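Slides due. Your pick:
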Amino acid sequence: MCPSPTLRPASPTATPQPTAALEGVSLDQQADPPDLATQADRPKTDLQPAADPSAMSDSRSLVRAGTPYAVPTTIQHSERKRGLTRWALLAALLIGGLSAYYWKHYSVSPLPAGIASSNGRLEATEIDIATKLPGRIDTVLVQEGDFVERGQIVARMDTSVLQAQLREARADANRARMALATANAVVEQRRNELTLARSILRRSQQLVDGHFISVEKLDTDQAQFNVATATLTAAVSQVSVAKAAVQAAGAAIERIQADIDDSVLRAPTAGRAQYRLAQPGEVLPAGGKVIGMLDLADVYMTLFLPEDKAGRLAIGSEARLVFDAAPQYVIPARVTFVATEAQFTPKTVETATERQKLVFRIKAQIDPKLLREHWTQVKAGVPGTGYVRIDSNSAWPPTLAIRVPPS
C-alpha cells in the first residue's frame, strides 16, 4: 500500500476567517469550505474582483471556495433600490385601484339639462316645550336624544298651589249651589205669599161690592198683593244670581284644572328630544323652556338656486337628496316652498364668487311616512346635495335612482 500523503497544516493565512463583509451573504453562501488538500492543490488565481458587473456574480462562488471576499456596497444599494421600487409600484397600483373604485361608485356624472343641484344641510322643525305658568319644575322625564311620541309626558311642574286653589274653588261652588237652593226656597215662599194676597184681594172686592167692608180695606189688600208680586220678582232674580254664581264657581274649577293639566308638559308631536333646557327644582317664568325637540315628521333640505332655474321650478316638483355621510343612498323628496324674493347666497353654500349672486331659497321636504320608517336614522345638520327637476320631461339619471336604507 502506498503511504498516505502527509498533510501539512495550512498556514493561518491560508484558512479564510468569516469577516463582517459576509453579513450580507445568505446562509447557503456561507457553506463550509472544501477540504484543505484540494484547496492546497488548486493553483493560485488572481481573486481581485473585476470592475465588470458580470464579474460580481462570481462572488458567491468565491465565497463558497472559502476565499475571503467583501460584497461590494453597490450590490447592497442596488438590492435596496429594487425593493423600494417594488413597494412604490404596489402603492401606485393600490392607489390606482382605489381611485378607479371611487370614480366608478361615487363620482357624479354630468347632470341632464332639466336637473339642477345645490348643496345644503338637512333641517328639522324645532319645537320648544315650555311651561304656561310660572312655577317650579317637579320632574323631567326625558333625556337628550330620547325619542318621544305624540302626547308623551316629558316633564311635570309643581302644582301644590294650584291644588289648593282648586279645593277653594270647589268650596265656592258648593256655597254657590247652597245659595241657589236657598233662593229657590225663597221664590217658593214668595209665590205662596202672592197666592194668599190674591185670594184676600178677591174676597175684599166681593165684600166691597156687597157693601160689607169699606173701600179702604180693599185698598189695603190691593197694596199687599202688589208687594207680594214685587217680592216674588225679587226672589226670582236672586235665583238667577245664585245660578250665575254656581256657573262662575264651575268655571273657576275648570280654569284651575286646566292650569293643573298644563303643568304636565307633553310632546306635541312625535320626534326626538334635542336639548334638556331646565332641571328639576328650577323656578321658571311663564313661557320658560324645559325641552327642545325636533319634529321628525317635518324634515327638509334648504337649497339655493339662481333665478333662471328657480323660475322654472314648480311647487311639488320631484327632488333627490344625497348626503355626504351616506352617498350610496338617494332619498326622494318634494319641493314644498319656493321663496318669492331673492337673497344673497349664504356663506356656507358656495365660494365667495357664488355668494355675490342672488338666489332663491328652495325647500325640499322628505315624505313623513318615509321618515317614520327610518326616524332613528334621521339627524339634522347632515350636509349633502339636493337635486331638483326643473323640467318635468327630463328623466333622472341612473346615479340618482331612488335608493333608501333598509327598514
About this structure: Residues 160-209 form the longest helix (50 residues).
